[in-house]
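Troubleshooting: if your tokenizer reports a length mismatch, compare against these two reference records.
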Amino acid sequence: MPFVLSSPDLKFIGRAVVVVKGWHTETFSMAVLAHAPEIFRFVEPKVFQQAVRMFGAEGAPTKILVVPALPQAEMRANKALNCCSRRALTPLIPFHVMLADLIGHIEVNRNYQKSDLLQMIRILKNYDFFKEPQLELFKSKRKRR
């Protein structure tokens, strides 16, 4: 499994402890990691063992950190990824990948009563606020009158 997950990789994860932090306006970098060590608190042995007990005895879940976006510069991205791998954190998933996968699996004709989030995504999808990603390739650059 790759260290940075994409949508097709998600089907290979049976159980996971997933942590999403409210840092969507930042780029995932060494500076962010240095100034926010609490990001990795969920992989500390005591905290993770509590999560394992919640899942039961069927094996340890995968630890996944949802990151806003990786740095564009390859060297900076590699430094941040190496820091994560040293913390026994495998793998990472960019927030846009997780969100796109969630949106893709929501059905507009299904009622998601138990989840306000899923219900909101269903409504937005029903009113065409989300478009199919591949259709944007053929979008004309000029507006039609």
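Reference record two:
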Amino acid sequence: MLVSGYPDVQSAMAAILLEADEIVVKPFEIGRLTELVNQKMLNRKSTKRLDKERVGVILQRCVSSIVEDWLARAKQSSELNCLLLSDEERTGHLLSWLRTWLFD
């Protein structure tokens, strides 16, 4: 629920982004606000809780794409491309380091 003195579009958009159910514009009657709160409490929906993941688990799942993205960016660097290295030579240490860091 969003209480605002300015019923403008920007406030409405902010409320939507915050998943507000109601926008109450000032001035308002306290009785109406109480009524809205009671109504929302009686009709509230259960929300699905998102499972939390550890950063290490996410990185383990994404390690290949992390290395691929790094390689693509490295190939765009003229300084790094001065050395004649294969993709495996460029990423081997990175992949090794990430796996050691993630599994220790």
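Descriptive notes for reference record two:
- The mean pLDDT is 79.
- The CA atoms of residues 93 and 99 lie 10 Å apart.
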